Amino acid sequence: RSPGSRVFDLVIPTLQPARPRVARSRLFRGGAAEPPVLADASDMLRTLARGGAATVGIGGTALATYAYGDPGFGRQVSFWRVTGPAVLSYAACSAKHKKSDADTKARAFAALHDHYSKVSLDLILELRGLYIKFGQAAASSPFVPQAYRTQFKVLQNDVPSEDFAAIKQVVEEELGPLDELFEEFSESACGAASIGQAHVAKLRTTGETVVVKVQYPSAARIFSADAQCLRTLISLANPEALPAFEEFEKQLALELDYRAELANLTAIFDAIMPTFADRVAVPRAHSTLSTGRVLTLEYLPGPKLEGEMRRQMAALGMRVDESESMRDWIQRLEAQTTQPATEADDDEREPWRAWLGRVGARVVGIDAALWVVGKVLATGGAAGGAGGRQEELRTCLHSLVEVHGFEIFVHGLFNADPHPGNLIAMGDGKVGLIDYGQCKRLEEGPRRAIAELMVKVADDAPHAEVAAAFRRVGVRTEHGGDEFLGKMARLMFGRVSVEMLEPKWHRDLHKTDKMTHYPPDLLMVHRVALILRGLSVACRENVSIAELWRPHAAAALDAGPD
After folding, report:
1. For the segment 69-97, what is each residue's pLDDT rounded down to a tens digit?
2. Contacts of 205 by beta carbon, 8 Å cutoff, 6+ apart
3. Are strands 280-281 and 430-433 parallel, antiparallel or unpaired?
4. Angle ∠(234,237,243) on CA atoms, nearest 5
5. What mean pLDDT comes out for the span 51-56?
6. Which residues, in sequence order, are CB contacts of 93 under 8 Å at separation 6+?
């Protein structure tokens, strides 16, 4: 599987019928010759004791009083009241059908998926918080059963906003009376997320239009309780994914303190604006109107880049469901590209534009094929002005790639979430960069190791040299094969080759070896790379992230140890 998608492959995959290979979950064991059987039942039942308290003793006065006084405990009770029976139902189904044929087993699990996907969505919408993030991640993972992905898609673009009265209370607790600070303050949120929402306002002192990001009243209090529930569930269902979840949890915890985001925003503003001010815009922060729960920022005019990216992809025949965000489409596409393919993948029907690009790539090469597809679209009735918009998007793309390469390798602090929803199309190829809640700081050692890897991939070094650089970053595989690591590095950071379009290439690659350890530092860098490379697809450009990052990577190596 794609290392960059591991954080989205945490729990639900183990709720599917066992594939014809040895299961890696602690919850189910067994392979093709031996159907999965329930394992570690005593551990699981002990873990579900809290859920048992919810299901059999929820009416008890003591428990009810404690849950009321401790919102975190109350949320844990609610979580296990639903999740406990679900886990047991899947375990029972696996045990019951351990000798059943594949079709019977698939039907039984499909019925569970259909039921518990609806129940799970109701639970997520009830509890919100970290569960919203988790549901959004699951909705974009190709490893999650379709029933869950379908239900959870509503979380991508339709996260309900908090009542304005609660938002106003937070702002006034942190800053003072709303009317004294703001001449106007929109009661409707311009964006809502898992831990907070944003409102457009106008400062009373200067008349400047700003964006005020406000954290939900209980977000910080309930975070640790939610994380504990998910961590326990993952340890039961897929313990191999715990390191990825821990990095996921660590990054989300940083978002809870808006002072950290303010510091990140200020540091990145000071680092990149002197060099890149003509190509990108980073909003200035109003530090006197910012606290741990409120962040006031300069308003950047223009539509989000996401809408334009959708139009470009639609013109290329690459449809994105309206309920799925561009970021999650890109991540899902990357995961599907690097996941071992099945024989059925060879026969999937493609839109004619995508087919044209695929066949053209085999005949004349990727870059030429992308150019041909672009010309066909431009002369085949594409919307007026498409060429100009496409060129503007390309300019934005190159600016984004260069800026993030500078952040990663020169500055060492970078925004790990540059998806199209966090980008503003400001016109003339200039792009606004917003939302610095998920920033990652690379220490000098990992930064130099990743820089060396980029240089090796960019220079098309032999597999042995690329593999050695990959290992120095901290990547480990089951067999330690040079060819596997060399190809994986090029797949992740290089230019797409013709052979990479073939499902058979991916099947053969993953038969040779598999990754057993993937360092968190590289995980976040790869996340940025796959998003930026996905953006290039919409601009019909076949970019090598490693080549575009090479100047900054080489500068990091030339600078020597601090």
Report:
1. 455 778 888 888 888 899 899 889 989 99
2. none
3. parallel
4. 40
5. 39
6. 108, 109, 112
Place of tokens 């009083």: 65
Q: Which residues contact 277 (CB under 8 A, 6 or more apart)?
A: none
Nearby residues of 206 by Cβ (< 8 Å), 6 or more positions away: none
Name the residue with tokens 């959004």.
136
Yes or no: say if 354 and 318 are a contact pair by the CB < 8 Å rule: yes
Distance between CA 470 and CA 483 in Å, rounded?
Answer: 12
- H-type alpha helices, 238-325: 242-255, 258-276, 305-315
| Rounded Cα–Cα distance for residues 470 and 330 (Å) | 24
Q: Is the dihedral of CA 336, 337, 341, 345 positive or negative?
A: positive
Q: 433-449 burial, b if ≥16 CB within 10 A, otherwise e? A: bbbbbbbbebeeebbbb
Q: Distances in Å between the alpha carbon of 185 and those of 175, 201, 213, 262?
A: 14, 4, 12, 21
Q: pLDDT digit string (tens) for 423-455?
A: 888 877 789 999 898 899 999 999 999 999 999
User: CA 38, CA 91: separation in Å to the nearest integer?
Assistant: 6
Distances (CA, A) of 292 to 259, 303, 374: 5, 28, 47
> Is the distance from CB of 403 to CB of 395 less than 8 angstroms?
no
Q: What is the pLDDT of residue 146?
A: 84
Other Cβ atoms less than 10 A from the Cβ of 478: the count is: 11
